[in-house]
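Next up, a chain.

===
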Amino acid sequence: MGFSLEIITPKGIYFSDEVESLTIKMTSGYRTFLAGHMPLIGSLDYAPMHIVRKGKMEHFAVHGGAINVTKEKTTVICNAIESASEIDKERALAAKERAEKRLKEKDPNIDLKRAQLALQRSLIRLEVLDK
């Protein structure tokens, strides 16, 4: 028995299907959702997300957002999302190296928060690829 999951980004509906489970990191920690979960609204962290659909686990990199769980469906609204198949490992490694270099330089002209987020996003992408 599954439940309806819809994932929405600023570009529109990214995913809409029946799933058996959803594991996602909220700002309060990781949560796994199954059919019949109690209603909930929460904030999402930058982290890997896993769904089980038709008996197979699928991995995604989620870059912040919100979740709304109702009896009818679970909706994930996120700033950006990438499936493991959409992630370019070489590009993620290069982004990680660039961000680490910027953070090590301690240049006052560098946007520190932006560099930290770039590093976090690249690490999440690499973690998703390792699953």
